[in-house]
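FORM 12-B: Structure-to-Sequence Request
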């Protein structure tokens, strides 16, 4: 059964076909021939393998005459699977036969232990024929905190969040991602937001959600979970937590009596005002004054 992380990683490479070649060159040091186009192979590898044993993604690098130069079989592997040492060689051979070009196997994982598991040579039993997968693990995925770098490749910053979002750079990665959301189409924005938020540590996720709520509609299931379909109790709780999260995101101390007053409010309009004021005050207690300067 596939997961959100598995499908999300496949989508990143599908949405940016050059991403695999970039990672092979820049992160893993593999030499690839100059190519004109990277294209997803829409043909399914069903000739010898059933539907449930199909490569996650196959892309082909073409020259100017649209002759295939390299094919890349992409497999996302988030946990051990005893079948893979048997199916991965099949994917490579099938793709090589179909496109009549050298073929690489790139395995993508988010766990350092899985990097070692995936990189083990696969002995086919035929003399001289051993397949060693090329593995892109967290150590080969850069930490992206620069908004300009994120804008240049939204898929890179999402991949960075998935690999490093629970570490100390999680919030900085999340903020870099926020810089690209306006330029994404609606579907990618929603999917990528879910992937990023689900990958961040809890504190970073709460702060990022609070900031996002200030200026846009809810995009992810994580944010939507705080709003209980128009029920006032859910709205009150969500807005009160937004107030506190914005204050904390600005590194303002939130005393216990301030926290209790905010969480105890039963006035949605009052909470809306406090959310706006939380972005401006210099001290958390200024929330409750008539104006904030």
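FORM 12-B RESPONSE
SEQUENCE OUT:
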């Amino acid at each position: 059964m596939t997961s959100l992380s598995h499908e999300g990683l496949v989508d990143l490479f599908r949405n940016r076909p050059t991403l695999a070649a970039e990672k092979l060159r820049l992160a893993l040091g593999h030499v690839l021939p100059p190519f004109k186009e990277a294209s997803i192979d829409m043909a399914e590898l069903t000739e010898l393998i059933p539907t449930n044993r199909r490569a996650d993604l196959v892309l082909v690098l073409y020259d100017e005459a649209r002759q295939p130069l390299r094919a890349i079989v992409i497999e996302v592997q988030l946990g051990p699977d005893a079948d893979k040492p048997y199916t991965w060689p099949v994917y490579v051979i099938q793709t090589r036969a179909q496109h009549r070009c050298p073929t690489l196997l790139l395995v993508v994982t988010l766990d350092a232990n899985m990097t070692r598991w995936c990189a083990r040579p696969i002995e086919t039993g035929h003399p001289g024929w051993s397949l060693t997968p090329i593995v892109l693990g967290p150590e080969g995925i850069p930490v992206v905190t620069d908004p300009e770098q994120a804008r240049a490749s939204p898929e890179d910053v999402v991949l960075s969040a998935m690999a490093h979002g629970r570490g100390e750079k999680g919030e900085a990665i999340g903020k870099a991602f926020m810089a690209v959301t306006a330029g994404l189409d609606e579907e990618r924005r929603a999917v990528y937001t879910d992937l990023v938020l689900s990958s961040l540590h809890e504190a970073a996720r709460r702060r990022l959600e609070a900031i996002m709520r200030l200026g846009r509609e809810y995009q992810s299931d994580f944010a939507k979970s705080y709003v209980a379909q128009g029920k006032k109790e859910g709205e009150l709780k969500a807005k009160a937590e937004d107030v506190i999260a914005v204050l904390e995101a600005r590194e303002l101390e939130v005393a216990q009596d301030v926290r209790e007053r905010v969480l105890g409010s039963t006035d949605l309009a009052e909470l809306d005002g406090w959310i706006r004021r939380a972005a401006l005050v210099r001290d958390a207690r200024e929330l409750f004054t008539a104006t904030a300067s």
